[in-house]
Amino acid sequence: QAASELSAENLQPKKLAKKQRQNRPIPYWIRMRTDNTIRYNAKQGTGVEPS
């Protein structure tokens, strides 16, 4: 029981850290490659409204 509580405790910070990594700014060389026409994170999937 204690082990399952521990894993649930550690789950949230990991998710937050992953979201922070995904939220990083676009590298300058990608902007050069695409003529600076990027308006959203293309890796987040298509057809999903940003919340």
Features:
51 residues, mainly alpha, ribosomal protein, ribonucleoprotein, Ribosomal_eL39
Write a structural description:
53% of the residues lie in helices and 0% in strands. It is mainly α and 51 residues long. It has a domain at 2-35. The chain is rod-shaped and about 45 Å long. The model has no long low-confidence stretch (mean pLDDT 66). Keywords: Ribonucleoprotein, Ribosomal protein. GO terms for molecular function: structural constituent of ribosome.
Q: What low-confidence regions span 5 or more consecutive residues with pLDDT below 50?
A: none
End-to-end C-alpha gap: 35 Å
Number of helices: 2
Helix content: 40-55%
How many strands? 0
**Beta-strand content bin:** under 5%
Overall mean confidence score, pLDDT: 66
The secondary-structure class comes to mainly alpha
